[in-house]
Design a protein that fits this description.
One of its GO terms (molecular function) is transmembrane transporter activity. It is found in: Cell membrane. Keywords: Cell membrane, Membrane, Transmembrane, Transmembrane helix, Transport. The chain has a single domain (18-342), classed as ABC transporter involved in vitamin B12 uptake, BtuC, CATH 1.10.3470. It has 14 helices and no strands. Helices cover 75% and strands 0% of the residues. The chain starts with a helix and ends in an 8-residue tail after the last helix. The chain is mainly alpha-helical. The radius of gyration is 21 Å and the shape is globular.
Length: 350
């Protein structure tokens, strides 16, 4: 018995050490991917050119390319990916289901509907930093996401929230909101419809520094709040009754987690459009790398940043033409979703 009691803390310590190591390695990978993102593009720049430019020793042309064009795009990709990865980790953990992501629960569609409505009503400018949209789009996206999440959560409530019912209602809400979004595009002017359709693909091509600040502020505010819920997220994996007996106010905890995920998703969508499957794939990759029972929050955010920034750099620096990052993440994420749905084992059931 004594050996068993000593083995359990040792196993916990090894698991925590692995989480720390994986998180640090992901941070290093983020820095490498960010440098590649600034270098990648039609203009031939080396890593040394980028470093010289960032310390103020570059030519005026290099300053324009690096500081005004590529750097905000890379920073936005990092923030969008981190926000989506963290949001996915929160929703998957509280629902105890890897399918419970903002994409499937309707949060992304609600934010997209709000943003498309703002684009159409503002005259067809899809750049977040342009005119009225620089002030209105993030707020409208958050509003759309919050209304959607409140409706989905309310409809799923039956003396508690069942993850399967939540997912099914979210799928229905996603379809309905997608129909309304299509209606707005179909009845908009040509310029407005083209701008909204281009934004819905999920792209960082129209990003400026004005697009970065709302996501940065949301992430800086929400991340500490989400981390304070990490212990409660761990406890709630044991079930509602045990969590309540251990002092967790389950429903208040869930509402706080949902609010954090909604704000993060809406901020990301307002900056880049709906970059699909990042919130679904990133937490699961982080969980498998760390070998933990639930997605670790920081590691999931870093993996999301790697996916979005790397996908954007791949789309404009390697593939022919410029492929939006939303298309690349969909190509990666859809097969993974199919694999997860078909892989039903006794160890990990959906």
């Amino acid at each position: 018995m004594t050996a068993l009691r000593e083995a359990k803390p040792a196993a916990v310590t090894r698991r925590q050490s692995r989480v720390v190591v994986v998180t640090l390695l992901c941070l290093v990978a983020v820095l490498v991917i960010a440098l590649w993102g600034v270098v990648a593009g039609s203009s031939s720049l080396t890593g040394a050119d980028v470093v010289r430019t960032l310390i103020g020793a570059g030519t005026p042309g290099q300053q324009l390319i690096v500081v005004e064009l590529r750097l905000p795009r890379v920073v936005a990709g990092l923030l969008v990916g981190a926000a989506l990865g963290l949001a996915g980790a929160l929703t998957q953990t509280f629902a105890r289901n890897p399918l419970a992501t903002p994409d499937i629960l309707g949060v992304t569609s609600g934010a997209s509907l709000g943003a498309v409505a703002a684009i159409v009503l503002a005259g067809g400018s899809y750049s977040v930093g342009a005119g009225l949209l620089s002030l209105g789009l993030p707020a409208v996206a958050v509003l759309g996401a919050m209304i959607t999440s409140a409706v989905v959560y309310g409809l799923a409530w039956r003396s508690g929230v069942d993850s399967y019912r939540l997912i099914l209602i979210g799928i229905g809400a996603t379809a309905a909101l997608g129909g309304v979004t299509s209606y707005l595009i179909a009845h908009a002017k040509i310029t407005e419809a083209a701008a909204a359709a281009q934004w819905l693909v999920g792209s960082l091509s129209g990003v400026s520094w004005a697009s970065v600040w709302p996501v940065l502020i949301c992430l800086a505010v929400i991340l500490p709040i989400a981390l304070t819920q990490s212990a409660n997220l761990e406890i709630t994996q044991l079930g509602d009754e045990i969590s309540t007996s251990l002092g967790v106010v389950v429903q208040r905890h869930r509402l706080l987690v949902i609010a954090c995920a909604v704000v993060l998703t809406a901020a990301a969508v307002s900056a880049s459009g709906p970059v699909e499957f990042v919130a679904f794939v990133a937490p699961q990759i982080a969980r498998r790398l760390t070998r933990t029972g639930r997605p670790p929050l920081l590691a999931a955010g870093l993996v999301g940043a790697i996916i979005v920034t790397g996908g954007d750099a791949l789309g404009r620096g390697v593939l022919p033409g410029e492929v939006p990052v939303g298309i690349i993440t969909a190509i990666i994420g859809a097969p993974y979703l199919i694999w997860l749905l078909t892989r039903r084992t006794e160890r990990e059931k959906l």
